[in-house]
Amino acid sequence: MSESLNNIKSIALQMELDGIKFYNHLASKTLHPMGRAIFKSFVEDEKLHAKRLQALLPSQDETIQETDKSTAHPGGRVVTVFQSLGEELKRRVDVHTNDIDAVRLAIEIEEKGVKFYEQAAKDAHDKKEVELYRFLAGEEKTHFSILKNTLEYLENTELWEAENEGRIYDMWMNMVNKKT
User: Fold this and answer.
1) What CATH number did the domain enclosing 100 receive?
2) Using CA atoms, how far apart are residues 119 and 131, in angstroms rounded to an integer?
3) Residue 125 lies in domain
4) pTM for this one?
5) How far apart are CA 26 and CA 113, in angstroms?
6) Residue 74 included in any domain
């Protein structure tokens, strides 16, 4: 396995591990029960993602042997979405003034995650890895959608509830009309 593909896997794993910490931190700071529940569910998702990625990584012995044989730059370091945002991310998480800001920050992270996994799927050569990266990109897209919906709810609860009630009413009417 090439060093660059191994690095992609390592970066992906580190992103998921960082995501666990990130969403745990947001869950502890979020006041709204819905936001807190969403962040806690994301923690569980990230744990499952990390477990799947760990299965793709070679053991430490294999990594040492490959590193010795490769021409990879010894000073190269793994950079994740969380590390690339660095101090700004820490500042924004620690000083966010409300739940809406926390959700907006999580949306940014999920967008970057989607891009990373889509690129990783393009770069991967193994069919199993391509499928995993596509799956992870899909998971990040799902998180993004949930967060966007949550943001809409938090920013305009009354309108959000009215729209959802309208959708439920429409579904109910469709069901009633099909029976007749």
Assistant:
1) 1.20.1260.10
2) 12
3) 3-63+81-179
4) 0.70
5) 17
6) no
